[in-house]
Amino acid sequence: xxxxxxxxxxxxxxxxxxxxxxxxxxxxxxxxxxxxxxxxxxxxxxxxxxxxxxxxxxxxxxxxxxxxxxxxxxxxxxxxxxxxxxxxxxxxxxxxxxxxxxxxxxxxxxxxxxxxxxxxx
Length: 121
What we know:
- The protein has helices at residues 2-27, 31-59, 63-70, 72-91, 95-114.
- By secondary structure, the chain is an all-alpha fold.
């Protein structure tokens, strides 16, 4: 039951991320507000991915093991999202944002692969 709730939150975060990306790219003309919307979009995207990974872990599946060892489409999916984020912020000449995001992703992967029981509730 808790897994369904976590996956629902993950889906909501993913939808919010996409909405924020759309508003930040197409509708917001103020550069500072657009940057803030895009940073929030990246945070919602990261929370969506992490919530999905946590729900899989509660079910007994290691999403990182599935992704890195067996499943090319998942690697491609996550890679495309990350390349999109790099392209988006590079085209706006804001390299710092995606570099910080890369560092956070690396930290999350290290924690999830080395010590998943450390984040257990």
